[in-house]
């Protein structure tokens, strides 16, 4: 039996989750684009599309030379036996292959430089309407033949419940290091789903992150809510070439299927949060997750 811990809600909560006996669909109470007039690399049409769908795609964000550098660094990290013993590394459930490496910008000088790149940071600032800090970074590997699935989820549900992120004022950027096809486990998003928060059932177990990094069950939406969202919004499969990127809102309902093809899928993933939205006491957990999953250093990226 899994032990659970009771806790008190820290502040007024517009997005209650993991508290009730029944799931619920709640209206979003936050903007998606926090400052429509903010200057930056994206034009008004791009911002309007992001506001409507909750995501945008950039066909080519990094150069071919940069892509090769990142791929080499990815290979180095995945073959580092010492790193596999680090709690920041997650291995596949059925093998010893690396699935993810968290806080990668503190492990790798190569990725430390990338997360501060103006091509990423300026876009994040423009959407969030403020300076930003890095809430989380990681590299994801989905090897050919054995890459497992990531079930449907809203990142904000976990960040709110377990990290104490108050508002939906964070954006994720995923840079593809391999070609993304419909058949090799590409990212799927329900466009427009970011406007609805799915309140989940089940209390957060002690140190839930240890299990959820391998297979999350608490904090995942119920099938009925997913069916309603899918019927209303449909599902987009985000394919594209290596070197491209996807930016998506913290509350987008997204996931990916397993990869039984010979073609691996890998990406670098960076979460930028507004410095005006720093994490507090968790809204549905006894204590915050470790810093490599939800940063407690709110220093703005410069």
Automatic annotation (TrEMBL):
Question: Which molecular function terms from Gene Ontology are attached?
Answer: 2-oxoglutarate-dependent dioxygenase activity; iron ion binding
InterPro entries linked: EctD, Phytyl_CoA_dOase-like
Q: Name one Pfam family in it.
A: PhyH
The UniProt catalytic activity note for this protein reads: L-ectoine + 2-oxoglutarate + O2 = 5-hydroxyectoine + succinate + CO2
Task: Write down the EC number.
Answer: 1.14.11.55
Subunit arrangement?
Answer: Homodimer.
Q: Which PANTHER family match?
A: ECTOINE DIOXYGENASE, PHYTANOYL-COA DIOXYGENASE DOMAIN CONTAINING 1
Annotated family: Belongs to the PhyH family. EctD subfamily.
Q: What is this protein called?
A: Ectoine hydroxylase
Native organism: Streptomonospora alba
């Amino acid at each position: 039996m899994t032990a659970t811990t009771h806790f008190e809600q820290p502040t007024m909560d517009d997005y209650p989750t993991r508290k009730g006996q029944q799931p619920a669909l709640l209206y979003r109470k936050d903007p998606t684009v926090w400052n429509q007039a903010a200057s930056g690399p994206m034009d008004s049409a791009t911002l309007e599309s992001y506001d409507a769908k909750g995501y945008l795609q950039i066909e080519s964000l990094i150069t071919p030379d940069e892509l090769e550098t990142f791929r080499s660094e990815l290979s180095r990290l995945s073959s580092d036996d010492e790193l596999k013993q680090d709690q920041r590394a997650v291995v596949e459930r059925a093998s010893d292959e690396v699935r993810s490496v968290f806080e990668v910008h503190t492990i790798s000088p190569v990725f430390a430089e990338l997360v501060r790149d103006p091509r990423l940071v300026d876009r994040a600032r423009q959407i969030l309407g403020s300076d930003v800090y890095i809430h989380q970074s990681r590299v994801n590997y989905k090897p050919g033949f054995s890459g497992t699935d990531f079930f449907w989820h809203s990142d904000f549900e976990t960040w709110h419940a377990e990290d104490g992120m108050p508002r939906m004022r964070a954006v994720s950027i995923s840079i593809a290091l391999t070609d993304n096809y419909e058949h090799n486990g590409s990212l799927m998003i329900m466009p427009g789903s970011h406007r609805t928060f799915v309140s989940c059932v089940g209390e957060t177990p002690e140190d839930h992150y240890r299990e959820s990094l391998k297979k999350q069950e608490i904090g995942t939406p119920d099938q009925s809510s997913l069916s309603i969202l899918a019927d209303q919004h449909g599902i987009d499969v985000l394919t594209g070439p290596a070197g491209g990127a996807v930016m998506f809102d913290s509350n987008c309902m997204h996931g990916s299927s397993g990869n039984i093809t010979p073609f691996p899928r890998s990406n670098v993933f960076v979460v930028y949060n507004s410095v005006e939205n720093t994490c507090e006491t968790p809204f549905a957990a006894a204590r915050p997750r470790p810093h490599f999953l939800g940063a407690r250093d709110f220093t703005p990226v410069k």
